[in-house]
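In the current project phase, we have settled on a layout for protein records. One protein thus recorded is set out beneath this paragraph:
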Amino acid sequence: MKVRDFSKRGDAIPVPDLVRVQQHAYDRFLQLEKAHDKRDREFGLESLLKEVFPIESYDGTMRLEYLYYKLDEPRYTPDECRELRLTYGRPFRIGVRLHREGVDEVPEEEIYLGEIPIMMGGGEFLVNGSERCIVSQLHRSPGVDFSIVSSFGDRPLHSARIIPERGSWIEIEVTKKDVLAMRIDQSTKLAATTFLRALDEKFSSTDKLLELFYEVEDVKVEKLHPEHYSAELIIDTDTGEELCRPGAMLGDALEMIQASELKTIRVIPSANDPLILNTLAEERLDFLAEVTEHEAALLKIYGRLRPGNPPQVDKARQLFEEKFFEDNRYRLGRVGRFRINRKFEDDKAYTVCDETEQSIRADDFLAVIRYMMDLRSKRNRAHIDDIDHLGNRRLRTLDELAVEEMRKGFLKLRRTVQERMSVKDPDELSKIADLVNSKSISSAIDFFFGRSELSQVVDQTNPLSMLVHERRLSALGPGGLNRKRAGFEVRDVHISHYGRICPIETPEGTNIGLIASLGIYSEIDDYGFLQTPYREVKKGKVTGEFISLRADEELKRVLATSDSLDEKGRLTDGSVLARIDGELARVPAKDVEFVDISPKQIVGVSASLIPFLEHDDANRALMGSNMQRQAVPLIKVDPPCVATGMEQVVGKHSGMGVKAIQAGEVTYADSERIIIDNSDEYELRKFVGLNERTCQNQKPIVKVG
C-alpha cells in the first residue's frame, strides 16, 4: 500500500517510548539490574528497608539488621497464572542478621515476605489472574505555597502553607487585626513569632526578633515621638510599673516615660509594616521567672497541641522535637526542600541548603515571614502561587505509591518483631523466622496491586485503550482530591499543561478534568515534575539542541510554536506568536529562545489519531478521543484512508503486540509461534479472552529469513 506524507515540517525528534513512565518507575522501585551493594538508597524498596531496619528490642538486648533483598524467578508462566487465577510475581526475600547481647553466635537468614508482581508488556501486572495497571497520581507538591485566603475591605489577607512530604502541615495567615497567626495541623491559632522562638534558641529573644525585621535605634527620652514603637520592655525604675510592652506604640505612655528617671530607650522610629510588632504585642507569652523565652514558647505550643496536660518544659521540648525534627515523623522530602530552595533563591538573607536537610529550619520559617511582608508591600517581585500550575503539582508514579503502601506493612512488621523480642528468651530463639511475621508485608503488596484505588483493571477493548490507560494521570486516590469537593479551577485546562498533559482527553461526567492523559512527548524529571522538550533557537535560527523544560522554567523563557519556522529552520521576520510569562503575546522574532518539537506536541495519544484535529470543536474532539477507545476490532481489518502517522506508533507501544527482546533472523514462523535465531521462541495468543469481553488474536507479520 502506497503511503503519501503531507506533513510540511515533521517532527524534530521521533515519538519516544510511550510506556516509559511506567517502566522507569518499576525499574526505580526494584532496581533489579543492580547488585545488592550497588543499589541507590534514595529510591524504591531499598530506601524503605534502610529506613525501617535495624529493629531493636525495647530493652536494647536484641537487634535485627537488614543485609539485602532478592527477587527469585517466578514459579509459574503468565498463561498458567491466568488459568489458575494467580499473581504473576517474583518471590521477595530479605536477608537479615540477628545480634543478641551475651551471645556470640550471629545467625543470618533469608526470609520470604510475599510476591511482588512482574510488569509485563507495556505497564500491566497479572494480579489474581486479571491484568491490572497502576495509574500515576497528580498531587499537590510538598513545599511552600503563598495565597490570598480572603480580603478585609480592600486589604488582601495573605496566607502561606508549608506542606511536608510526611508530618504536620503548618499554615500561616494574616488576621483582620494585622497579626501573623499560624496553625499546626488545624489546631487553634498561635502567634507565628512563638513558633520561630521555639524553632531556634538564637531567635528566641524579642530584641533579636525586632532587629531581624526593623531598624532599632537608641533614642534620648526627650526626642521620643508618640508614633515610635518600643523595642524593649519599658519599666519605671522607681515604681517598678510596666510603662510599655515591646512592639507596642509609645502613644499615651510617652508622658510617663519622659517623667521617669529613664535617659535613653530602644525604639523603632519608623515601621512601614507593623505586622511583626502587632504579632509580638498579641503574643502574650507566660514569662515565668524560671523559664527562658525559648522555653516559654515551647510551653505555649505544648499547651495548644496537648490541651489539659500540665505544662512541663521537658515534655514540651520532647513533643516539639518529635513533631518537627524526627525524620520518621516529619520530613520535607527532596521535592519539598527543592521547592523551598527554588522559592527563596532570590532572597539575599536566605542560605540555600542541601537536599539532605529534611527538617524545617528557623531560616526557612524566617524566609516565609519575609516573603509575606514582601507580598503585603508588593516588593521584590513577590507573587502568590497558582496551585494548579504544573510547577506546583507533581506526579507520584508506581514506585512512590508502592513504597508508601508498603511502609504501613513494614511498620506493622516492626511492631510485631519488637513485641516478640520482648516475649521470647534470647537463648531459646532457634530461627529468625519466629520473630518475623511476613503476613503484614504480603497483605500490603496484595492490597496495593490488587485493591487500592489507583490499581485498575486494564481497559483492553482495543490496543489504543490499553496504551491510554497506562498513560493516565489521576488527581483522585489516597492523598489526592475528592471528586465531590474538587472545584472548577482544578479541573480546568491550564497554560502549563502545554506539551505535558493533553488538553482534550478527559472523561465526561463527575471525573472531568480530574483524570487526564500524558502528552505525547511528555516526560518526568527526578523530582516527579512533568517536562516537555523544545528546540533551542539562537539568533533566529534553530541550533539542533533539544532541552526539556519544567513548567516553572518555562515561565522565564520565550517559546514559539513550530509553524513559526520556515522550511530552512529559520524564524520568519517580524513578530511571531509566543508564550511569555505564561501568557500568549506577539513578540519580535529575535527574542524567541525555544520552539516546539512538533505540532502534535500539545496533545495526547488519543487525540493525535484524529485527522485535521485543529478544525474540530474541542467538545466534539473530546468525545472523539474517548470513543476511539471503545472501538471493537472487525474480523477483517482495514487501515484508514486518511491517517495522522500515529497509528503505527500506538500499535508498536501497546502491550498487545509481541516484541522481540533482541534482534536476529526469523528462523521459523507460523500462526502460533515465531522463532528467532533458533533460540528465542515467542508464542502468539490465539483468540484469548480479555478483560472487556473482547478477544485477542495475534498474527505474525514477519516471514522466515
Summary: The CA atoms of residues 88 and 115 lie 8 Å apart. The two ends are 22 Å apart (CA to CA).
